[in-house]
């Protein structure tokens, strides 16, 4: 059974964002914005199993301070959005993103996606090219890759996710420890892991999520259409940002995007894994702001 809840049941997600509820068919998506609606729009699209809270609020505030209207939202089955959905595809999650654009009356957008969110952004750029000004793809794999095999998730990360079958979802401590294990395994091994910061984020996520377990429904979704060769057809400017130590989507994936998309550039972040650590926020914000200014001088 789906769980959407009335509009008043979707609380303010953070201390400084402006909350909203977006309708995408039968799905209600929790969303929030930072900055002025009169500024150029940046929409942030998170990865699989992750709500909007995985976009650090300090990153959102920093982008807004650079003159952007920043939107982030909870995917279906995460955070305060509708959960317990029947089977759905990545294409339907793509339509959720389009619904967000429609809700905020964004005619043309700079899309920023990470991991699965980056895949969704690539799909929107191809399916609705007139609405996408640029793409920033973080920790991303190329959509419809037909080249040589690219490396995938590290075995130890896969093994940790294998524990889901026996995880005691009634135990807040067990769930928090599992999520902390995910964060630790996604992080770069050459840099200190900020356990305190990650625990705070996980606790905040658990406090606001309708159902933590439903987020892992994303592990069952796939593509329904044929997107073969899609990355080579993207015409918008593309900024690829990739952690040099990414154990989930190894950096060769980002390099493949940068070498195949028609108009792409690559920023490799040393000492960064499949994560958005505090030390990476300033270089990411600077790279996005500079990239958008070059690709869209009207900003």
UniProtKB/TrEMBL annotation:
<protein>
    <submittedName>
        <fullName>Pimeloyl-ACP methyl ester carboxylesterase</fullName>
    </submittedName>
</protein>
<dbReference type="GO" id="GO:0046503">
    <property type="term" value="P:glycerolipid catabolic process"/>
</dbReference>
<dbReference type="Pfam" id="PF00561">
    <property type="entry name" value="Abhydrolase_1"/>
</dbReference>
<dbReference type="GO" id="GO:0004806">
    <property type="term" value="F:triacylglycerol lipase activity"/>
</dbReference>
<dbReference type="InterPro" id="IPR029058">
    <property type="entry name" value="AB_hydrolase_fold"/>
</dbReference>
<dbReference type="InterPro" id="IPR000073">
    <property type="entry name" value="AB_hydrolase_1"/>
</dbReference>
<feature type="domain" description="AB hydrolase-1">
    <location>
        <begin position="40"/>
        <end position="276"/>
    </location>
</feature>
<dbReference type="InterPro" id="IPR050471">
    <property type="entry name" value="AB_hydrolase"/>
</dbReference>
